[in-house]
Structures are given as C-alpha cells and as structure tokens.
Write a structure and sequence with these properties.
Layout lengths: L2 E3 L9 E6 L23 H15 L6 E2 L9 E4 L1 H5 L2 H7 L5 E4 L5 E6 L3 E7 L4 E7 L1 H5 L2 H11 L8 E4 L9 E2 L1 H9 L4 H4 E3 L6 E3 L1 H11 L7 E2 L15 H4 L6 E7 L1
Helix pairs in contact: 5-8
C-alpha cells in the first residue's frame, strides 16, 4: 500500500503521519483502490482487507487502527487506556459522531477519512500528544481545529509547540459553494477577504478551506510557521485520492492518520 508521508515544519522523532493513496484504480468503480472507511457503502470485506494490509504494513494489530464515525461535528474523543479497555460495541458507540481524536498512547493509529474535506494531523513532540481531525466546511465554521488544540492542551500539550500538517483536500479553485455557505463563514466571524473569491465568469463563490483552517489554528495559539498546508487537491488528483465532488458521495475515502511509533 502506497502511503503519502506528511511532513511537519520541524521533524518529530518517532511519529509517522500519512495519507493513503488509492493505488490501482478502476475508473468504473468509485470505491476502487484502497478504501478503509466502513460506512460509505463499500464492500465490508474489501474494507477489512485494506485495514489488515495497513495494520501489517505499520506493524500494529487491527484493533490499533482507530477511526471515528464522522458526522461533520466538532466533537473530539480522547483515546486513552480507559477507551482501550472498552469492548468493541462500547468503543464504536464512543466514536459515533466524532470528528477528531487525541491520544498520548504509543502504537495506536488514529485517523480520519476524507474525500475533499481537510484532514489535520497535529503533534506536540515534547509532550507526546498527537491528534487528527476532519474539517469539512461545517467543522471549519465550528472551529474544530480550536477544539482539538484545547483538548491536546488538556492532555499536556502547549499550543505554541503544536505542529500541524494538512493532508490532501479540495483546493479553492475546485471548491465552489452556495452563498449560504459564505454566509455561515461570515456569521462565524471569518475574514471573507482571506478565504472567499468569486469566479469572474459564473459569479459563484469559492472558499479556501485550507486557509480557513489555518486561521482557526493560528487563533488557537499555534504558531503560523508550524502549519504545513498540503499541495495536493483531492478533486484535481481524483485518480490518486478520493473526491466526493468528482466521484460522488457513494465513493471511497482517503485515510489520514498519525501514530507514535
């Protein structure tokens, strides 16, 4: 399985952050390639096989791969020994409606699945705190990045030490939105001049989700120089990463994850 390594501005020892790539793609199948998300309509055995392959590649057990069932919320779950002691049904219940994970545990892979939304991986190497978040436009408006930073700090991190890398997501050119989305960002207090531009031909608004999340993180105390933005657009590169805008909602998802090795 090919993994795209995500690099932080300053290297962090014993931490691996990555996004999956689709691999070999059948253009007639929007799930084809590597999909680890089990609630988007893909064949369950295919998803399980992909998860087993990744677990073996990373040298962890299958139950060390932890992914929430995302709902575009701003809920953050802490993956600790208490969570790990729960049975599978209670773990799944604890991950329902969660869009970000924080942990201090070693050998645990925490990840989110995206198909155009912005995936964030965060680390405070000194404190040994790692996190991952799924930031679609709703989560961005709700400032999920701020919620994650706050939870990391409750676990011992310092916002000024946190480093962030963004995985593949839709670029501003591709992210056309309705005016109701622009209004939501305006109401939430975002500086529209920094994140919105209009297509000169269509008049439609295009939002820069990466820049919006960057602003949220900086306001949360993360130094601007500690934030690395991805150069990969999921829609432009839909043969390498899944894109709901290009392939439809009924398609696979790209996993973006982080592990303390």
């Amino acid at each position: 399985m090919e993994l795209l390594d995500l690099e932080f501005e300053q290297p962090v020892s014993s931490v691996k952050a990555f996004s999956t790539t689709r691999g070999e793609v059948d253009g007639r199948n929007a799930y084809s390639g590597v999909n680890l998300c089990d609630y988007v309509g893909d064949d369950a055995l295919r998803v399980l096989d992909a998860r087993l392959t990744l677990a073996m590649q990373l040298g962890v057990d299958l139950d060390d791969l932890i992914m929430p069932r995302q709902t575009h919320s701003t809920r953050v779950a802490v993956i600790d020994e208490r969570f790990r002691s729960l049975d599978i049904d209670k773990q799944e219940a604890a991950l329902e409606g969660v869009d970000a994970l924080v942990t201090t545990l070693q050998g645990v892979v925490i990840g989110v699945n995206t198909a155009d939304c912005v995936p964030l991986v965060l680390v405070d190497g000194q404190a040994g705190v790692i996190a991952v978040a799924h930031a679609g436009w709703r989560g961005t408006v709700g400032r999920i990045g701020d919620a994650v930073v706050k939870e990391m700090c409750r676990q011992g991190a310092d916002a000024h030490r946190i480093q962030v890398a963004m995985g593949p997501s839709i670029c501003q050119e591709c992210f056309e939105v309705g005016d109701e989305v622009v209004t939501a960002f305006k109401t939430a207090g975002f500086a529209l001049d920094d994140i919105v531009k209009r297509n000169a031909v269509t008049g439609k608004a295009h939002i820069d989700l990466r820049m919006a999340n960057r602003a949220v993180l900086i306001a949360a105390g993360v130094p601007e120089g500690n934030i690395v933005t991805s150069r990969h657009c999921s829609r432009c590169e839909h043969g390498r990463f899944f894109s709901a805008r290009r392939l439809g909602i009924n398609s696979g998802r790209t996993l973006t994850a982080i592990i303390k090795e």
